[in-house]
Amino acid sequence: MDAESDKITSGRPRRADSIFTATLELLADSGYDGLTMEAVAARAGVNKTTLYRWWKSKDEVLAAALTDSDLLAFEVPDTGSLRGDLVQTSRHIHTLLTDPATAPIAAAVLAAGPRRPALVAVGRTFFADRAEREHPIFRRAVDRGELPEHADPRSIMDMLAGAIWFRLFLRAEELRDEDLCAAVDLVLDGAAAH
């Protein structure tokens, strides 16, 4: 038994960061099919029983890693304007999708998703967590009168993030900062017109 890993820190195993890092590295290196509980345990230096005590499957470990790993963490911007916040958020999304440490993770999730219903559920968990974290951006924008009360933050972020994902992964085109700013302006024009 791996007693050290079983100790609880803030409702998770003490070695959670190592487990999450191992999970995301394996996903990037070996793809979804190569991600196993055994491989995660070996790379993280914990017993497999520790993983199963906290998570029932590799999908649960992956969902936890995607939402709780410091590797994918981000600060919600507060620039004083909706446009500024969305430009900063777009830059963050762009960095996650292009940084050598995180881009393979996004590519692996995107590639495996259509064939793996369980991975789709993991993606939903990840994006629901992101939406919850981004919610203050839109609440502040409504309070400042930049967005109508009925504006749909999810649709706005789907359009914005979707444009970035599409350009990078499907068109394999580079995005410059001015492209990100133009995408934000286009989405905001549409939100204002709607």
Automatic annotation (TrEMBL):
Residues 36-55 bind DNA. Gene3D superfamilies: Homeodomain-like (1.10.10.60), Tetracycline Repressor, domain 2 (1.10.357.10). GO terms for molecular function: DNA-binding transcription factor activity; transcription cis-regulatory region binding. Residues 13-73 form the HTH tetR-type domain. It holds the Pfam family TetR_C_11. Keywords: DNA-binding, Transcription, Transcription regulation. SUPFAM superfamilies: Homeodomain-like, Tetracyclin repressor-like, C-terminal domain. The keyword Translocase does not apply. InterPro entries: Homeodomain-like_sf, HTH-type_TetR-like_transc_reg, HTH_TetR, Tet_transcr_reg_TetR-rel_C_sf, TetR_C. Coiled coil: none annotated. The keyword Membrane does not apply. PANTHER family: HTH-TYPE TRANSCRIPTIONAL REGULATOR RUTR, TETR-FAMILY TRANSCRIPTIONAL REGULATOR. This is TetR/AcrR family transcriptional regulator. It comes from Nocardia speluncae.
